[in-house]
Amino acid sequence: MQLLDMADNVNISVPEGTLLNPIPEVAAALVCQVLVTDFFTRSKTLANVFSILQTPVLPAFTNLGLFVKMIDGEGAYKLRIRFVRLRDDKTILELPIQQVTWPNRLEPIEFGVNFQQVPIEEEGMHEFQVFMDDVYVGRSPFAVKKTTPPNQTGGKI
User: Fold this and answer.
1) What does the pLDDT average to over 137-147?
2) How many CB atoms lie within 10 A of CB 157?
3) 75 assigned to some structural domain
4) How many folded domains does the chain comprise?
5) 53 found inside a domain
6) Exposed e or buried b per residue across 45-82, where buried means at least 16 C-beta atoms within 10 angstroms of its C-beta
């Protein structure tokens, strides 16, 4: 089968009979402190969802949960998740590739992952990036801010 892109006049060859999976998209991606999946119902509970991670010390190590809901996919995919610092696109951690099977395009899929003791080196924007078959499909960004603890003496300043 030949696919032709008329704008660039480039031919891409795909072996005859190859079925290409649709590229899914992320409908929701939330970062939290911990994610719990019910064993029987598979429903997800997210504790302490945030868009700003505040910490009194840096570097810090923290537990993070990621919830992702995806739509418009069907078939088998290789899922990869990266956690990066956006300032320099430094990969802080990467989930090993997982095989995901999507049985029905009309139904979304959901998954959750907990990461233990994630190193946070500095303030600034960070994000989880989601890839399906090495195609970037979505993200969940958040800011890291160093905070000053409140006055511990109880008196007025």
Assistant:
1) 96
2) 4
3) yes
4) 1
5) yes
6) ebeeeeeebeeeeeebeeebbbbbbbeebbeebebbbb
Task: Say if CB 124 and CB 69 are below 8 A apart.
Answer: no
- Pair of tokens at residue 16: 């005859």
Nearest to 99 by CA among 70, 77, 114: 77
**Total residue length of the chain:** 157
Q: What is the CATH number of the domain that holds 52?
A: 2.60.40.2550
Q: What average pLDDT does the chain have?
A: 87
Residue 8 domain-assigned? no
13 within a domain of the structure (yes/no)? no
Domain that holds residue 62: 21-146
Q: Is the separation of the CB atoms in 29 and 128 below 8 Å?
A: yes
What's the half-sphere exposure (Cβ side, CA atoms, 13 Å) at 59? 7
**What integer pLDDT is reported at residue 42 of this predicted model?**
86
Q: Is 56 left (phi over 0), alpha (psi -120 to 50) or beta?
A: alpha
